[in-house]
Fold each of these.
Amino acid sequence: GAVVSQHPSRVICKSGTSVKIECRSLDFQATTMFWYRQFPKQSLMLMATSNEGSKATYEQGVEKDKFLINHASLTLSTLTVTSAHPEDSSFYICSGTSGRSTNRGDTQYFGPGTRLTVL
Amino acid sequence: AQSVAQPEDQVNVAEGNPLTVKCTYSVSGNPYLFWYVQYPNRGLQFLLKYITGDNLVKGSYGFEAEFNKSQTSFHLKKPSALVSDSALYFCAVREKGDKIIFGKGTRLHILP
């Protein structure tokens, strides 16, 4: 299957600082990338969907000014958590598909996740 | 609105026995259904999907799932469980629009 990497795998930061998480598709062009948040022992919560070259579409309740998403190329998307607070501590997972976000049969390929801890 | 349910938080199976992880869904049209597996501190790995065609879908690592329209189910199965199958399994459905909905997950324990 297709490979998606995330960097860093784990990050600890102080409250009020910003953290950038990178998501890369290594062997395919990810036309669409998704960002999820997963709380302990819970399912994935979709935060936003981004099509390459377009602005991200955020899910209801997700602050777009706090969670900045950039999808400038077909192999890279970044999520920046701005002015992080302890409640932002979570496991963040990205995924990519080669098709547009409306292609509902496309398989999503997931990155290994980034564990963010905000002190 | 579309939804997916995994009624079991945890399933315990002895190694070598068949396993089933249950999933039911609710959509207004034709569903696209997926199973993913997650190992500790890892992202999700794709196992299989149903789009159309044969109701029995075969996937990775010997897993298969059967689409049952009348029962609105898409249970994941494997004839003989391995200890290495122990993980968290997510069922997902995608109907209209561009959002995939995940179930809450079922933790599978294979007992040696």
Note: Chain B has no helices and twelve strands.
Amino acid sequence: DSGVTQTPKHLITATGQRVTLRCSPRSGDLSVYWYQQSLDQGLQFLIQYYNGEERAKGNILERFSAQQFPDLHSELNLSSLELGDSALYFCASSVGGMIKETQYFGPGTRLLVL
Amino acid sequence: GQNIDQPTEMTATEGAIVQINCTYQTSGFNGLFWYQQHAGEAPTFLSYNVLDGLEEKGRFSSFLSRSKGYSYLLLKELQMKDSASYLCAVRGEAAGNKLTFGGGTRVLVKP
């Protein structure tokens, strides 16, 4: 158990809908990262937040957005969902987002878009 | 851009040794990570290399050559529970702390 929690564990929805995925980092960690893992794409970095501020951005679609709240939990919002958005979404956290830090991953949210 | 290559799949026998290679081309280099991931589960941290050489941790060792853009993960005394995917990830530019992952190597341990 990494100490990172994610809810929900599974999510089934329809195309065109909007969903929110939630992540709570390990106690004391200030950085949160979101990754998408689909069968044909591997693990792809989406976005990083550090202490409430966006720190780095990867291949995140405009239909997706994220934020980190004052209590350091983070939410990833996915809108206008398409079939191709079906994937495992992982959240990871680290202490401060510095170069040598290890990222610890949560159990993931499995999203299925029908 | 960043490019990370590792074999798709490897098979080995229980008790044996397997070496998983990873080659990378990145803009900037700030460390290489290996993670283990069982199907449908979260990646779990195995090792971190930022300087050239071998890092040993029990049955797992990881090697890095920055000049060659090359790393390997060595798994010794293989156990059935080692059947999993092994992900090589590189931290490139200094901005942020994002990791770029390879596609993963699925290792199947046979009795």
Note: Chain A has a mean pLDDT of 93.
